[in-house]
Amino acid sequence: MAEQGMKLPIGKISGQALDTLFNESINYHLDIYVKAIAEYEMTDLFSNWRTIIRTIDELINIAGELKNPEEASKFLNLKFDFLKDDNLKLFKEVFEILETRFENNVSTRFQQLAMMCYAINATYRKQGIYEKMGLPLYLSSTSDSIDFFQSRRAYFVTTLTLIPQIAKGEKVVRYLDTLNYLQYTLDSCLVGITTSYYNLLLNQSLPDYEMTSDGQKAIGNFEYQHLEGFFMEPERLSLLDQMELRPELVEDKPMLPKSEKKVFSFSEVANAMALFEGAFKKYNLAQCIEFIELNSFFGDIAVYLKDDFNLIIDEEQFDPIAQKYPSLILTNATDNYFKALNSFVPFQKVHNYYFSTVVFLTRLVYRTLSQSLVKNRSFQINSGFVFEDKVSAILAANGFAITGITRINHKEFDLITIKNGKVYNFQCKNNFIDITRVNLDYKKMGRLNLRLCSYYVKALEKEAGRERLIIGKTGIANIEHFVISRYPVITRNSNIINFTDLEKWIQSAAAKDK
Q1: Is the pLDDT assigned to residue 405 strictly greater than 50?
Q2: Which of 15, 119, 197, 444 sits a CA distance of 20 to 30 A from 62?
Q3: What would the pLDDT profile of 443-477 be if each residue is shown by its tens digit?
């Protein structure tokens, strides 16, 4: 395991001292992480790490593939404490379910991952590591492990990208011991790097930001939640939102079948393309260069598919194919952690071969086509209306009466609602600010954050200046104005609500009304 970490000063930390501390923390943890990976023999570690990522992806998706609810429940509720007879009995049942239901050694890989989780969980509990991480994430059961690994999946993929560049040693460990040796490095170093950068961003964005430290753990005076449910990044308009909130615009496309015996299949890549094409037909997605190149690229590489999941292509075959598609970023042989973290390339090169999987290719479809759509002006405008509908549905489900008032005396309003005799006037802002890029330049991201918050404050002032119009229309003088931001911003202004925090805000507002 890696060292526990840097020693923290005791007391309050703010200003330049906080900047210095967390910049040093980033360098410290990055150095430990690189040195840890550098000890290993590259080919062996790369192979093991690919299998681990495949197994994690299977773990996350198996429950959805189990059509029998009872089987899915047994799988999700399995506890990884195999010293207890009840858990061991259930484990045997789950193993038999997976053995019957899936091929390609899915059951064996799950068994191996469960054993690794069991060992790490015991160590983490004994040494109090979960408490030090400060997150309610564990490796004690299937469902807990799904959350745990989903929260760290980006770190696993980043590490896979970096292994060919930084693993230069001779250390070789059994596959079953791989996570026992490296999981803590990811948890202490990579989570530590992300935490440090977000603290730097908070310090850049809030003049009164400070942290209180007891020498072991530092707690800030502001909480910031960037990711959405299931640890997903915010999207301007997701595929699921389009299909749910704009079904009349979605054209059904024929889907390719997938074997019932498989968790993943190459057909899913084609199906992802078809889903995007049908869902976003309004924006002529099929005519976009990225869509055209993806379609042709997948046709070129399909012949290299192995076991309907892995792709392994010799560089002599891969390079000419890649050169045909300049709009697609397919590989990135970098040794820079931050560039790897923010990369969505589907292929890694080891020696003279390029490796990928169905999951990486599906992710390439989602990322590439989503970015292509963002450049479409019509998409930008309409995504704002879809966001309003999404917010409206959440508010309506929580007792806010949607008035349907969108125009008063030629003045436009987004979402005027009434609850308990009070008017809540919401503006829904679907502005784009890619805060995931904080890892590259937190000062620039801080400036963008402040600019966006300033824009929101002016929008609130504008609404307050035309309150009389709402009073005249509703007959209610008790009015409060809010901005709901699709992309989470850092502000202490309680009238600016991040969409990620909307449910929490609704609960808080309900408590105040009592």
Answers
A1: yes
A2: 119
A3: 888 888 999 999 999 999 999 999 999 999 999 99
% of the chain with per-residue pLDDT over 90: 79
How far is 321 from 232, CA to CA, in rounded Å? 31
For the chain, which domains are there? 13-210 (no CATH), 237-374 (no CATH), 377-513 (3.40.1350)
On whether the CB atoms of residues 426 and 415 are closer than 8 A, the answer is: yes
> Are residues 245 and 439 in contact, defined by beta-carbon separation less than 8 angstroms?
no
Distances in whole angstroms, Cα of residue 121 to Cα of each of 137, 390, 424 = 11, 39, 46
Cα distances (Å, whole numbers) of residue 210 to 13, 192, 200, 202, 263:
6, 18, 11, 9, 46
- Of the candidates 333, 329, 340, 408, the one whose C-alpha atom is nearest the C-alpha of residue 371 is 329
Identify the band that residue 2 occupies on the pLDDT scale cut at 50, 70 and 90. Answer: very low
Three-state DSSP class for residue 169? coil
What is d(CA 391, CA 500) in angstroms, rounded to the nearest whole number?
A: 11
Distance (Å, whole) CA 108 – CA 45 = 19
CA trace torsion 172, 175, 176, 180 (10° rounding):
50
CB-based burial, 195-208: b 16+ in 10 Å, e otherwise: bbbbbbbbbbbbee
In Å, the largest CA–CA distance within the chain is 77
- Across the chain, mean pLDDT equals 92
Q: Shortest CA distance to 446 belongs to which of 221, 100, 228, 202?
A: 202
Return phi, psi of residue 380, to 5°. Answer: -60, -45
Contacts of 265 (CB under 8 A, 6+ apart): 258, 259, 308, 309, 358
What distance, in Å, lies between the first and last C-alpha atoms of the chain?
Answer: 50
With beta carbons less than 8 A apart as the criterion, state whether 259 and 265 touch: yes
Asked if 354 and 331 count as a contact pair (C-beta separation under 8 A), the reply is: yes
* pLDDT confidence of residue 514: 61
Q: Rounded CA gap, 169 and 153, in Å? A: 25
Q: Is the pLDDT of residue 338 over 50?
A: yes
- Classified as helix, coil or strand, 165 is helix
Pure H helices in 134-177: 142-166
Tokens 């923290």, located at residue: 8
For residue 318, pLDDT beyond 80: yes
